[in-house]
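## Example pair
The file below holds two records. Each record gives the amino-acid sequence first, followed by its structure token line.
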Amino acid sequence: MKRSSQDSSSRNIPEDRKLYVVDSINDLNKLNLCPAGSQQLFPLEEKLQDVSTDSGNGSHSLFLVGLIIVLIISLALVSFVIFLIVQTGNKMEDVSRRLAAEGRDIDDLKKINSIIVKRLKQLDSEQN
């Protein structure tokens, strides 16, 4: 009956407190401050099991948090690269349009130059 009251009280104690309570009781037992009947509220196997499950869950949650952070950072980098590609494409279109327009202007200037040269040759030949 004493064991069942200890079990029900152990369910009300948070997980991180269980280890503290067990360690404190064991320390008191080592100092012989507690009577022999109150030794080990929790079995040693339960203490070891709690330690192994807590460390496993902590490392898994830490791994998941790290993985989520890495995925968010990589998503941000990919979005930034896509943005840069689009911006570069727009700039290249602008430059190619300007080059085409300047090419047409150069062709027009060449035609005007050739007309002027022909006219000057005609005037030169009329004067001679």
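Second record, same layout:
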Amino acid sequence: MASKLHMLRSKTAEASKLLSKNGNSYYKQTLEENKKYIVDPPTIEKCQQLSNQLLYTRLASIPSRYDAFWKEVDHVKQLIKTRKDLKTEDMGIAALFGLECFAWYCAGEIVGRGFTITGYYV
């Protein structure tokens, strides 16, 4: 465990050096490339207004996303009703999708436990 911690510290120090060396130029380059998205002058009030616009725009999009969700559910129900007509390829893709979801769940559990496979630290 100590070697992993030492390796993590060295990688963090390396990243910190790289960021302090190239961070300012990267910052300026990013701002230059995305100049069209910057609101001038960048005041707190303008940031608050944009934040509210984003929030309420997302809230306004809920009905259309809700409808799209139920269309997807209806499509899955239809597939289940006509499962005799499904091809082996479709069932294989569905099985791989389920396996991928389970793998991401397991990865999230491992990360949540602090990168241990056997259990939580007590």
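Notes on the second record: Residues 4 and 10 are 10 Å apart (CA to CA). The chain has a mean pLDDT of 88.
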